[in-house]
Design a protein that fits this description.
Elements (H helix, E strand, L loop, with lengths): L6 E2 H10 L2 E7 L2 E8 L2 E10 L4 E2 L1 H10 L5 H9 L4 H10 L9
């Protein structure tokens, strides 16, 4: 399995906000990010700590699980931007994490 990159917290925040996540009120030392897709809040979320400048491989592994990525490559594609918001939402639908928008 491919190793994940160490990433800057500010870069993680920027990508999450650009791909459909909204910041939730701060809880103690963390900022929560909740996915909004298909017109509603989804049960996919993560949080970032105010105290961390960088997220190492261990913390990126936790984010990968919270964001429901099946592998490290997909996570890297999400944060490096080849994977669009639409592609991410479609992946979540395909693996059964969220439902398709009502027609």
């Amino acid at each position: 399995m491919r190793c994940m990159k160490v990433r800057k917290t500010k870069d993680l925040q920027r990508v999450l906000l650009s791909k459909g996540f909204e910041e939730r009120p701060v809880k103690k030392h963390h900022v929560f990010y909740v996915l909004h897709a298909n017109g509603k809040k989804q049960a996919v979320s993560t949080y970032l700590s105010h105290g961390n400048q960088d997220y190492d491989k261990k913390l990126m592994g936790l984010i990968r699980k919270q964001l429901k990525f099946p592998d490290n490559q997909k996570l890297d594609d999400f944060f490096d931007c080849p994977l669009s918001k639409e592609q991410y939402v479609e992946m979540l639908i395909e693996i059964g994490e969220i439902e398709r928008e009502d027609s």
